[in-house]
Amino acid sequence: MKGRVIALDEWKGRPAAAMVVDGRLSDLIVDPPAEIVRPGTVYLAVTDRPVKGQGGIFVRLPQGGTGFLRAKDGVKPGQPVLVQVTGYGEPGKATPLTSKLLLKGRFAILTPGAPGLNISRRIKDEEVRLSLHDAVSGIDLGGGGAILRSNTIEAEPEDVAAELEELATLGANLLSEGGGRDPALLLDGPNAHELALRDWPSVGDCDDTPGSFARHGIDEMVDGVSRALVQLDGGATAWIEPTRALVAVDVNTGGDTSAAAGLKANVALTRDLPRQLRCRGLGGQITIDFAPMPKRDRRQIEQIMRSAFRGDETETAMVGWTPLGHYELQRKRDRFHWTEPG
After folding, report:
1. Are 239 and 250 in contact (CB under 8 A)?
2. How many helices and strands, by DSSP H and E, does the chain display?
3. Maximum CA pair distance of the chain?
4. What whole-number percentage of the chain has pLDDT above 70?
5. Coil, helix or strand for 234?
6. SS3 48
7. What are the residues facing 5 on neighbouring strands?
8. At CA 140, angle to CA 135 and CA 142, rounded to 5?
């Protein structure tokens, strides 16, 4: 099956979105259970107690919730503050928050409190950049700023301006509600369907009718990425197993006993790793135990790793090699790890 298909359906009773490219699952978003807060949610919080040595302060959220806000010195307990959820917290830990709000749309991102207009560097055509600038330059951003995303190149300038005006109105409403004294929910974070329509390329078919996962064979593809075992090209395998502390990845050569078996297995895993992490909703600390290979091949693996993650939207830091020969990554937890119980 050639081409791209986007399916919006449910997985185990929760909203889910899948993107299939040339018959292969390329991306998957599954909503968390209702009690887990989604990234992008905006609260009016009340500061509680600072945490010395960790550069932040605990805050009180609605319904007895607790968040952790990274903040500079000078923030005192009892102050109301507008905060936004930045990712999924680790089990048993406070919800990660920021006071730097980002209101994202398909074409634009509003940055309340951060003035300036920035157009994505991926848009190279100067005429397109100028037309976009002219279309949005007259919009009142309430003292904030905006970022025009790379996919604005697919849109008409007036559509970009209309979306930015809606975001500016939303931002003004949120700021006006920031004067309260009690914790309150101001804006829900986007669900899986909204994220897919906002962030995924529009090229291709979108099937949002019930049963779309079954019709496109996505149920079986999801089953494939729910298992720890990954079948790689050339008969090699890998195991991707999340623990409370980190995500462990183990690479094996399988039945290949040639001199280059280790390198081939490692290359196959490295090229597929961003997709595997996206579809499984994995982030945090990731440690890879590569198959045995000469040290001189490490540079090649590093180059392939950087290239593989270059097109991935989730912020991922290449930390490097450990003394034991493992490779470490640090990845933002912006997806729900849907294979966890519950």
Report:
1. yes
2. 7, 20
3. 68
4. 97
5. helix
6. strand
7. 20, 205
8. 145
Distance from C-alpha of 81 to C-alpha of 130, rounded to nearest angstrom: 37
List pLDDT tens digits, range 201-243: 765 679 999 999 999 999 999 999 999 999 998 889 999 999 9
- The SS3 of residue 224 is helix
Q: List CB contacts of 144: < 8 A, sequence separation 6 or more.
A: 110, 111, 112, 113, 114, 115, 168, 171
Q: Between the CA of residue 296 and those of 50, 133, 217, 293, 301, what are the distances in Å?
A: 47, 48, 42, 8, 10
Alpha helices in 72-203 (DSSP H): 126-136, 157-176, 192-199
- DSSP labels, 102-139: -EE-SSEEEETT--EEEE-TT---HHHHHHHHHHHTTS
263: exposed, middle or buried (C-beta count within 10 Å: 0-12, 13-18, 19+)? buried
Q: Is the separation of the CB atoms in 247 and 284 below 8 Å?
A: yes
Structure tokens at 109: 């991102």
Read off the amino acid at residue 54.
Q
Q: Global pTM? A: 0.89
Q: Per-residue pLDDT averaged across 175-200, rounded?
A: 90
Query: What are the residues whose beta carbons fall under 8 Å from the beta carbon of 200, sequence distance 6 or more?
Result: 6, 17, 19, 27
Is the Cβ–Cβ distance between 7 and 212 less than 8 Å?
yes
Cβ-based neighbours of 120, under 8 Å, separated by 6 or more: 147, 148, 149, 150, 152
Q: Which of 96, 72, 71, 82 is nearest to 46 (CA)?
A: 82
Residue 77 phi, psi dihedral angles, 5° rounding: -60, 145
Give the HSE-up count for residue 110: Cα atoms under 13 Å, Cβ half-sphere: 27
> Would you state the structure tokens that stand for residue 9, as one six-digit string?
């359906």
Tokens of 288: 């890879």
In this structure, how many other beta carbons lie within 10 angstroms of the beta carbon of residue 91? 8
Cα separation, 57 vs 19, whole angstroms: 38
Beta bridge partners of 7: 18, 207
Q: At residue 168, what is the residue type?
A: A
| 3-state secondary structure (DSSP) of residue 98 | strand
